[in-house]
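User: My instructor asked us to take a sequence, write out its structure as tokens, and then describe one feature of it. I'm not sure where to start. Here is the sequence I was given:
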Amino acid sequence: MATAPRPRTSTRDPEELARRLTAWLGVRLPGAKATGVRVPESNGMSSETLLFDVEHPEPPLRAYALRLAADPAAYTIFPVYDLPRQHRTMRLVAEHTDLPVPRVLWLEEDPGPLGAPFFVMERVEGRVPPDVMPYTYEGNWLHSASDAERAHLEEASIGLIARLHDQVPVGEAAFLALPGEGSALRRHVTAQRSYYEWVVDGLPRSPLIESAFERLEERWPADAGETVLNWGDARIGNVIYDGFEPAAVLDWEMAALAPREVDLGWMVYLHRFFQDLTVGFGQPGLPEFLKRERIEESYARLTGHTPRSMDFHTLYAALRHAIVMLRVAYRQVHFGEAAVPEDPDTLILHHASLAAMVQGSYW
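Assistant: Let's start with the prediction itself. The structure tokens for your sequence are:
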């Protein structure tokens, strides 16, 4: 999978998007011209990103990025793309924290100009740990770094989550509360169940995912813990780094109110996902990087909160990721890039590690 061609993420024509963007920009900045419009190689599997420059007398040439709601014709990863919610979240985080969140500028809720709502933010230059090939593979800048450099990046990245959780007043983030009854954790899990049902509607169900949900109920924490603003997709692949220092925190579409450990479990498991994949392909990867115990220790030192029920939360992260992977696989089926196997669980790239977590033998 790591060496396979990247699955299709859009049916949109980049040249047509560039033309329409120039027309839209001309209304907001008369005399302005969008140049160098392009799709980054790391464009996500959900919302789309365009990079472009603006030529205008006041101010001079500026660099921007545009976040565009997913193309409905591209068999979207998520059922809903709420760009105003993302825009509001980024403004909230910028207002209440010292996290390097890119400055958001225009929000366009009318789908007419580009075919979907979008917002524009200032573009931050730097480098991002790659997903394809994963940063755990030999040959990329993070794998080639020294132990001390990776340790600095690790500590700084955990610090992003710590400061986010500590600095944003939960009352100001009430719009990110998920619907339903019960605690923030119960609502979060309920939302994931609904997402899974949407993914498998009319398609083969996953016995492994369903067993993971059952295991979660068996391990449910006696105390769900404090509710904070969660980044949602808390991982180093969503950070732009200047050297080994975070320069921009990106991708807020999964932000929600939840316990602290939901973000921490996601950070722990998403690295393990890449590390396990790398080992499976015969490379050592980065076994000493972003280790679970060090993430927990660093977070406790930075916040005074000792992470709890982390077996539960890493299982939950692996389960959530499995639902996304199943949707990605079914999108490949939709576009004729893959076929549904006899066992749908094999469509989940990390089915072996998820099964081990369900059985209690992974850690």
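For the description part of your assignment, you could build on this observation: The longest helix spans residues 310-334. Try explaining in your own words what that tells you about the chain.
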